[in-house]
Amino acid sequence: MIGCSFFKMQIYFYAAFYTIRDGRTEQEREDLICRISDTDNNVFVYVTPYNDIETLFCLKDHVQTVLQNFNITDEQYQTTLDYCLQEIKDESIKKIITNRCKYRHIHNNQGAVALDTISDYESDPLHYVYGKKLRGLLAGKLQEICGINVNLFVSTEYLSDPNIGDYV
Questions:
Q1: Which helix (H) or strand (E) holds 46?
Q2: pLDDT number for residue 168
Q3: At a CB cut-off of 8 Å and minimum separation 6, what does 116 contact?
Q4: Lower CB count within 10 Å: N or C terminus of the chain?
Q5: Phi and psi of 22, rounded to 5°?
Q6: Residues whose CB falls within 8 Å of the CB of residue 143, separated by 6 or more in sequence, listed in order
């Protein structure tokens, strides 16, 4: 007698997509997540809470951990950060206006987009700043304070986002 056995094999597929906020408002960020996510089919989306990933390397706890031997005070950090945010404000706002017009398919009446962007940036510059420029400028200013070459691209516990666990 020849025996035969059958088994049922199920394959589970999970997809996680990552993208940067790239000037989107909080509502546009949430809309993007909802539009792409499909939890019934295990498709998840993560959009950075800041404009881009480099901003995470500029947050106070991360910077102070990386430079713990130099005892950067909260006041030193905030003064340096505020200077950097002001220095790259115009460039950040221009980039956000361009991206928002592109995402919204706006070719005329860009003035309204510009006004909203300026308001958003001024209310929360850290969430809307051009992170690549901020990281470079902040590292340079911290180098002046510490007298060493500052590399903010190192891993610390402060680079994690508790929401990422919801997606992967």
A1: strand 43-47
A2: 43
A3: 25, 100
A4: N
A5: 55, 45
A6: 149, 150
